[in-house]
Amino acid sequence: MPYAIKETRTAVSKTESLLYQTFSRLNIGMPEQTSILLYLDIIKRRDPATYFHSLRVGILGSSMANHLSLNPKPLFYAGLLHDIGKALIDPHILRKTKGFNKKDFEEIKPHPLYGYFMLRDIHDFSAEILLRHHRFGHHPYPKKLPKSSAPYGKKTKKLIEKYARLLALADFYDALTTRKNDKFGKQHIRPGEIKNILIFYNRDVQGIIEELFRKGIFTEIPSSVFAKKEILPYLSLNEEIKNILLSAEHSLNLSERIARNVALAAALEPIPDKPGATTRLQDIKESKTLEMFVSGGVNIGLAFSHLADYIQKHRTAESSYQFCYQAMALSKIRRAGGKINQGIIEFLFPIAIAQSMHDPDSRKNILWILEKTKDVLKDTTPADVAWLIKMKRLGNRLSAVEHKYPVKVRNTSNVFNYYYQELRDEEKKRNTAGIIHNRQFVLVYPDVKRGLDAFLKSKEPKFAKRVIEAYEAIRNNPNNMRIGPGLASDFIAIILYLVFSYSASPIEEIIN
Ligand SMILES: [Fe+2]
Ligand SMILES: [Fe+2]
Asked: Does residue 286 lie in a domain region?
């Protein structure tokens, strides 16, 4: 079997879960969904591999259209249904992975026509698109097209051709990256070859292929988009469920939401390749066990909820840094070891202030809120600077490094200027870690933004893998200042916090 598929009645595969997410994202109503699912059920029963291939092509097609500024619905529908005609073909031929001969090809060839007649007058537009999905390759078929039943104008006909071309490309990409057989004489495709092969066989759309690679819709990692073997617990992400989750999320007030997201972000910070640190599979250092991350997250989350309450009551960032000190103290409660979450506390602090001051309903977006941190840091007072210094000293004492890293007193007017002066000093000393730490506040989180970009662009379905991609993007910093694992992991926590706070709905950015 080319695809390993384990299905039970109470489970949906990851690809199916993505299908439901796309239905909901594109606002596709129940009657349409039901109709498409009925067709898909036929192909699922006849040949599961073709069924999953169809889901992937539909989902991929919709994101291709999105990134090419086209309506995603036609490509989604036509992608899901493009091989429906294969339901009328002997499944033994469909399942062949070896010895695929000319006779088999002749049997398979009519499938676009079969599909067209199955769907015509029901999903007419999709029928027209899928009819053409094999007309762009080196051996195009069907040669002759049946007369269309609807009187389409010139413009619509052009659009049908355009969508069909993209559908053929999505189909080709999926076959290339997931099919393990010799049907096309293409075995053992290695990462790095995918783009070249795609362009070789699809020269007429080379520009589009390159754009889709640039945007991360196509990747060089075979089958990276869809994990085929993993099964999610049953969760039907339809409108009703989505609304239940949304209103549950809205029942939390600002400080509860902040506390929750801080706790989650800090608890999920450890990542698999951080040298010497905890991975999700093993505890390497006692001070960095998973227990440490989880308890630290819960502890500091509470301090942040106090901060949010304070700001909402007093409507100013003045004196808010007393809670930064409190967070540091709280972080240590009932926890052994030297882990104190200082980085996470410091980096998240301006963000949580900006949210509480300017965006209590989370209506803005991540970049907007990051931009605001500059203003809120300038709204602080010398007393806040004093609290920040106290906090840093306490942190160093709690992790027994107060003699190694003395904290300098600075008489500056606000916290922004404090970080500005620190940055200048660290630059003079050429201290990479110090520069990177302080420039987050002065230059509006440049390194966090780079990791965030990678996280959001990643097509990895596995949350932990998306985290690794973000981590690598942070570490591979263009101006050759290698960011250490500790600092990079702190940025991961900030990214997770931002993503949890600003993802559009509670069913997005799912931890799995
Ligand atoms: Fe096909
Ligand atoms: Fe196909």
From this structure: yes
Structural domain boundaries, residue 94: 11-233
Note the pLDDT of residue 273. 46
CA–centroid distance, residue 98 to ligand 2 (Å): 18
Q: Are residues 195 and 258 in the same domain?
A: no
Question: What is the pLDDT at residue 374?
Answer: 96
Distance from residue 50's CA to the centre of ligand 2 (Å): 7
Q: Which ligand sits nearest to residue 131's alpha carbon? A: 1
Q: Categorize the per-residue pLDDT at 492 as very low, low, confident or very high, splitting at 50, 70 and 90.
A: very high
Tens of pLDDT, residues 319-350: 999 999 999 999 888 887 677 889 999 999 99
Q: What is the 3-state secondary structure (H, E, C) of 306-341?
A: HHHHHHHHHCCCCCCCHHHHHHHHHHCCCCCCCCCC
Is the pLDDT at 124 greater than 60? The verdict is yes
Cα angle 22-27-30, degrees, rounded to a multiple of 5: 95
Residue 507 domain flag: no
- The answer on 340 and 196 residing in a single domain is no
Q: pTM higher than 0.85 for the full model?
A: no
Mean of all residue pLDDT scores within the chain? 85
C-alpha 172 to ligand 1 mean position (Å): 9
Domain boundary among 233, 261, 283: 233
Q: Residues 6 or more apart from 32 whose CB is under 8 A from it?
A: none
| Residue 165 banded pLDDT, cuts 50, 70, 90 | very high
**What is the CATH classification number for the domain harbouring 77?**
1.10.3210.10
CA gap 437, 491 in Å, rounded:
10
Ligand 2 center–CA 227 separation, angstroms: 18
User: Alpha-carbon distance 90 to 103, whole Å?
Assistant: 12
Residue 243, C-beta contacts closer than 8 angstroms, at least 6 positions apart: none
Site of tokens 């991609």: 469
